[in-house]
Structures are given as C-alpha cells and as structure tokens.
Design goal:
Elements: H1 3-15, H2 19-26, H3 30-38, H4 45-54, H5 59-63, E1 73-83, E2 86-98, H6 99-102, E3 107-111, E4 127-132, E5 141-146, E6 149-158, E7 161-165, E8 173-176, E9 180-190
Antiparallel strand pairs: 1-2, 3-4, 4-9, 5-6, 5-9, 6-7, 7-8
C-alpha cells in the first residue's frame, strides 16, 4: 500500500464517508475508486485536486509531500457578567478553539444557566460561543441583558418591539427595544455531558 493510498483511506474514514460516496464525487465507480485505496491505481491530476478539496487538505499533503499543519488555536475567555457596559471574564476560565472557527471575531464563552433553549439544542451547563455585538437580525440566537439578567433567546423585531423566544414557554416575551441590551450573537455551542 502506498503512502498516498494509506493517507486517502485515513482521510475518507475520518470524514465518515464510504468509498461509494467519494467515488460519486469523483464521477467514477466504487470499484475504480477502491483501487486508489489499495494502491493498484493512481489518480489523475483532476481527481487529486478534487480529493484535496473534498478532504480540505492540500494536494501536497495528500501526496505525502507535507505534513498536516495542526489548527492554530485561540483562547476564548469565559464571560461571568456584564456590569456597567464592561465585560467581566473569569480569570481562570477559558477554552482553546481553532482559529479558523473564530475567524478573528471578538468572541467569548458563556455558560448556559437554564434549560430555556432546549429546542435549539442548547442545554443547561453547555457553553455557547458568542460573537460580541450590540446588533442582531431576526431569528438570531442572542445573549442579552433583560431585567438585569444575562439570558439566551431567539430574537425577532416587529417595529419598535422585540420578541424573545425560549423553548420553556409557549408565549414569547415582548418588550421595547430599550428594555434589552444585546451583548452578542451565538455562533456555536460547546456541549457538556454529565
């Protein structure tokens, strides 16, 4: 088995794809593709480029000319509270995330305090990754200050009214725009398992 065929099989399995699924992407039969993984057939340049794109690696990596570069990590702080417009972070609470995921956004973590967002697959004690922003669009999931409490809700705007949705109640909360302070938009969830 060649270096290329070993690496190709590892990448395919890591991506959770079958040989048939990869073969469809390449426009070939599963039988022809399997020869790549067994090392009895070499792909043409077009298929090398398609495979590199499919597995999000360089063609040099696929061919064994370079090692995979580990994702660069950035540390995301854990927000404790917002006081007088200042963000107060836990000095010992932070988690590393791939820089590609954060994309130079001003982001922080917030630990969910209740089960009000279960329908959005956000559970109590999960960590949400929040992009700092004072604005939001209809149907964004946001972190906001409402009645002096940091909460996560889905938001909608109707003229000068804000509607905050949770999965805990059938009746969403309606308030004036001035009654809430948007802290940021949820861009991801870091699940915890008890």
């Amino acid at each position: 088995m060649s270096f290329f065929s070993e690496r190709l099989k590892i990448l395919r399995e890591k991506a959770g794809l079958t040989q048939k699924e990869v073969a469809i992407v390449l426009g070939m039969t599963q039988s022809s593709y399997s020869k790549y993984e067994y090392g009895t057939r070499e792909p043409n340049i077009d298929n090398i480029l398609k495979l590199a794109k499919l597995f999000n690696v360089s063609s040099d990596y696929l061919l064994g000319n370079e090692e995979a570069k580990p994702s660069e990590l950035v540390t995301i702080p854990l927000l404790i509270k917002v006081s007088g417009g200042d963000f107060i972070y836990d000095p010992e609470g932070s988690l590393p995330f791939p820089k590609d995921f954060i994309n130079d956004r001003d982001a922080f973590l917030f630990q969910v305090k209740d089960d009000s967002m279960l329908q959005y697959d956000i559970d109590e004690n999960d960590f949400v990754i929040v992009e700092k922003s004072s604005e939001a669009n209809n149907h964004d999931i946001i972190l906001c200050i409402f009645q002096n409490e940091l909460i996560i809700r889905q938001i909608a705007f109707v003229e000068n009214t804000v509607i905050l949705f949770s999965s805990r109640t059938k009746n969403p909360v309606s308030c004036r725009k001035d009654d809430i302070q948007i802290v940021g938009k949820v861009i991801g969830v870091f699940k915890t398992f008890d």
